Amino acid sequence: MARRVGARPGGIFGLFELVEQHREAIEYELIRAGVRLRDVGSERFTWRDLFVLVRGWQKAPHNAVAEAVHGHPVWSVAEQLAAILVDTLAFANWQRAGKKSAPKPKRLPRPWEQTKAQTLGRDPIPISEFDDWWESKKVGRRGR
Predict the structure, then answer these.
(1) Which terminal CB of the chain, N or C, has fewer other CB atoms within 10 Å?
(2) Per the domain annotation, does 129 fall within a domain?
């Protein structure tokens, strides 16, 4: 249990670090399980009990700890398969429709995938440089 994983501590030190990082999510799931974080170390709720619960939560869908650790909701295998089926069915229907002008269907968004954010322009222009920039754009337009 005291084994190190990469650069992260293992065992109780790793568990303590995880609790410090995601305390609220772990407390929430412990309350749902009928125990409290303050009970850790007692005969009723040992460090091993906490380790086993947290280890299971990190892998299980639909819980606060998995979402806090991964940074997004965790889907079950059934949910992932359902999304694949929906995407496949939408694509197949689009193909069978035979309308070349019809837009290609978009995939259902997955929580772990980054959305492509539209970026307009670049960094903001400092106010001290704005007038010069504005005037340079006007000159360019007059010549057209």
Answers:
(1) C
(2) no
Cα pseudo-dihedral 5, 10, 13, 14, rounded to 10: 60
Give dist(CA 5, CA 23) in Å, integer.
21
- SS3 state of residue 128: helix
Full domain range(s) for residue 35: 11-70
Taking the C-alpha atoms of residue 83 and residue 104, their distance in angstroms, rounded to an integer, is: 17
Enter the pTM of the model: 0.54
Tens digit of each residue's pLDDT (9 = 90 or more) over 81-127? 999 999 999 999 999 988 888 899 999 998 888 777 666 677 777 88
Per DSSP, the residues of 24-88 read HHHHHHHHHHT--GGGTTSSSS-HHHHHHHHHHHHHSSS-HHHHHHHSSPPPPHHHHHHHHHHHH
Q: Is residue 1 part of a domain?
A: no
